[in-house]
Amino acid sequence: MSVKGWLGGIAVFTVLVGACNSGNEPSTAPSAASAPASPSTSSSAPATPITASAPETAGVAVTVRRVIDGDTFETTAGDRVRVLGIDSCEASTYGGEQATTAAETYLEGEQVTLVEEPGVDSDRSGRLLRYVTLPSGSDFGEAMVPAIHTKISGGDSDASPARLADLRALDFGVRDCSDPVARYTPPTSSDYDVDVDLGRDGDNGLPDGALTGGYCARKWWC
Fold this sequence. Notes:
This protein is an alpha+beta fold.
């Protein structure tokens, strides 16, 4: 074989081997099976929205300059405040004097917190309508209603039904503004002479007829 023929044979052999190797190499193109799936949104549930709860009504700190009566006072800023949810006796009555004294003990000169009832601001007299929190953290209305000089507000109260229910649980349901001493009626002479004098008493010092009849059934000395 000539050199030219031998070189030509080598060239053909090289081409054939290269063709075989290229057919055996793995393909680097990504297959459809190996490609990452795109996220599907058709079946995903919508996220539940998070709603913030409504903030509680913030209280305002004030200092009480003077107490007007059991349910009304004046602040050092000059505002008059009518306490929501309670109704004390009028200041001119015996019960009103007791209520005013109690309110002075709780409030006068103290820094208290005024809390609004949503949608309620003031009455026709311009007084602020507020719940009142004492320095101890207790509610002023709840401190007053157990006494006989104060009751819960009646009729169309501006206090909420829930607050009135709390106050009602502490209220005995009776408000009496009169003087208990003035209500006492001393016995008269007719209380003693209710029976016919049968002459049985003698000189025992008791009123006539004290030992006879129904009178002795209801008087302490019989």
